[in-house]
Amino acid sequence: MRLILGSALALGLALAGAPATADAQAQDYPNRTVTIVVPLAPGSGLDAVVRLYADKLSQAFGKPVIVENKPGAALMLAAQYVATAAPDGYTLLVSTSSAMAINLTLYKQVNYAVKDFTPVSYYLKSPFILVTNPDLPAKTVPELIKLAKERPTPLNYSSPGAGVAQHLSMEYMKQRFGLNMTHVPYRSTPQSIQDIVADHVQLGFAEAGASLPLIREGKLRALAVSASTRLPSLPDVPPFAEAANAPDFEAVSWHMLFAPAATPKPIVEKLHAEMDKIMRDPEMKQKILTIGLLPIDPPSLADTDKYLASEREKWGSLVKKLGLEGSQ
Known about the structure:
The chain is built from 12 helices and 11 strands. It is α/β, with parallel strands linked by helices.
């Protein structure tokens, strides 16, 4: 009896001490260098923003916060690496809808799973711009929809590859409005956009950074932005939802900070709170806008979980509907 009571008491004390231990970890965190793993090479918009807030985190924590680039395998190499890292808050991942919502269904073999990560901060949207060759008769989204429905031969649209966010965004539009258009996949973003300029294909959803100079030079016509808000760099171009009178339409990529799944909750909450302060700063928002990305006030951890689940369902079901499940 004494043995049982003693064991029960020891267990009770251990359980009672668990939250205190986690809280102590958070108070002490970080006491050494934090590494943020980025799935793209240096120089990308994603990388540029991470370096901006890594500096801010370093200042706030009084410890180095470094960026480590691990490009490769369609953004999945970095995710796989962090999925197996120690869940202590010292190795974090930045990723996008491609790796965390699309590839999980698109690829036959993915060496990480949803359960391997916990979201820390959802802080920006990466919108696309619906661009056309200037010679295409349609000058607005309604005119484009009408043209696509009435044209005897389908319009051709480009993307940087089957299953990427630009491709799925166009398919999302096609299905929503019952359009018949032909996908022409390319191997890179610049090539897919240049062939719209050259009129080899008529249109496509393009990244802001890659298409803005061509829009300003009159080599591309911008009809709409795929986000629910306007881009300050293109104030006269409406959101697709407004242009097409489809209030719930949004087809964007996004950037999100993740930690390995078993990271103590107090550490995740501490990181989330610090990211919230950083991303609400007007100066930080302005720097992100100049890159052609849309900063957002980070939602709560619970709301971030819900958004992530909805995005996985949205893009995963579209991949299946297009017959692309496990195609890569």
